[in-house]
Design a protein that fits this description.
Order of helices and strands of chain B: EHEEHHE
Oligomer: heterodimer
CATH architecture of the domain at 39-109 in chain B: 2-Layer Sandwich
Helix content of chain B: 10-25%
CATH class of the largest domain in chain A: Alpha Beta
Strand content of chain A: 15-25%
Helix content of chain A: 40-55%
Order of helices and strands of chain A: EHEHEHEHHEHEHEEHHEEHEEHEHEH
Shape of chain A: globular
CATH topology of the domain at 39-109 in chain B: Alpha-Beta Plaits
Radius of gyration of chain A: 21 Å
Number of helices of chain A: 13
Strand order of the largest sheet of chain B: 1-4
CATH superfamily of the largest domain in chain A: Thiamin diphosphate (ThDP)-binding fold, Pyr/PP domains
Strand order of the largest sheet of chain A: 3-2-4-5-7-6-12
Radius of gyration of chain B: 18 Å
CATH topology of the largest domain in chain A: Rossmann fold
CATH architecture of the largest domain in chain A: 3-Layer(aba) Sandwich
Structural class of chain A: alpha/beta
Number of helices of chain B: 3
Structural class of chain B: alpha+beta
Amino acid sequence: MTTLTTGKPKIVPITGAGACAQAMRQINPDVVAAFPITPSTQIVEDFSTFVANGLVDTEFVTVESEHSAMSACIGASGAGGRVMTATSSAGMAYMWELLYVAASMRQPVLMSLVNRALTGPINIHCDHSDSMGARDSGWIQLYSENNQEAYDNLVMAARIAEHEDVRLPLMVCQDGFIISHSIQTMQLEDDKAVKAFVGPHKPYHPVLDTDHPVTWGALDLQDYYIEHKRGQEQGMRNALRVIQEVSADFAKTFGRSYGLFEEYLLDDAEIVLVAIGSVAGEIKEVIDELRTKGEKVGLLKIRSFRPFPYAEIAQALLRSKIVTVLDRSASFGAHGPLFTEISTAVYGYTSNRPLILGHTYGLGGRELTMRHIEHVIAESRICLDKGEIGDRQGMWLNVRGDKS
Amino acid sequence: MTTLKNWQELALGGVILEAGSAAKYETGSWRTWKPITNREHCIHCLKCWEFCPEDAIKLEDGRDALGNVRKLVKEVEYFHCKGCGLCVRECPVNKEGKVQALEFVRDEV
């Protein structure tokens, strides 16, 4: 399948990476600059085929590194184009300084990020260390549970990132291999419908508008730097609203609805698991099983990690008695980034005082099976009954040598 | 003293919408040494004007020895001169070493 022009959506078996490449084809960006890296390779590979076969009008810039890829993206975006890239792990780490440049220059570059562990030791499998490390770079981060979500998020990405109240780069994250390389059936929308939904790109003071010469990237010192950063922060705050608006329109157009996060059986849940990405699928399965046994357990699955919807999450966790947070990245010497955000949401925004328990799991692709998740929920129940977390706080899951 | 703007009034991403606005920035405040032109020794080769990174060497209309119209070095403009000394170093009269067409002196604050 190379195009979808029947006017109707189609159910297709496709990998997460393949689905994102299809979204990129349908978006038809002006410029793509990318350097292939496992496990995001298929996105770039498929897309370069679309370019070679004339299915897109994109200028595809083959660069010698990710540093150059992001530099080219920023330049092309500043010139007035809609720009996309894809990468993983060390590739995004090599883009590091440019991630900040893209965000602070308010260039809405779109990235399809396939989450992979950072070296070392060298590992190509999934964890969230790459994107979690970049959480302060100023990029909007949307996470995906499966192929469909990765595709849908990317279709929504341009309208969120390019919104005049936002104007920030955006990365759509999917779990390396688990999503990127697994074939699932999902609904691919019609080319024209996606094109109509995404709409035209509106450049902001592009440098190629030579009738109105402008300067991008000038020196900015003590007198204005912080005002520009404050404006950048406002773009992020506005993104909370814009993500919801675009998602609502997406639901109206394509029938799948997304919020800032997903609530799974939260209404009466005493035990709430909080997680990001593909593991949510297993958690839901376990919850369904335990619910038949009467355990009041639910899941809060993060979609938007930046901006982080503190107040909204605090409301959603208002009835929880223990919140167990699963981080798929480590902040060495500290708790995981999701744990600290959830703690801030719960304790900074409401007077509800549930127990909060944090675990790290899945680094470098280590599996977290349904049995492990059952165990986490059982241990959460014990903590809740005792009324204290005890020595389980910060425990790593499924690590040989630790009892978890 | 210009009034500084609030963040809400700024264009996004620090983009500067006014062409040539760099001229408003006083790089002269960085200076610790300053070049001084000695017009009696200057041969008006314009090397200093060519090398100056801040466009701080100001020229004026004049005539050469044969009476042809040409540009002559007028003065250093100290609002922009940051005292890098490139003009002093590149001056061919200075290089010859007998006299100095451009002197480099400590800038008294």
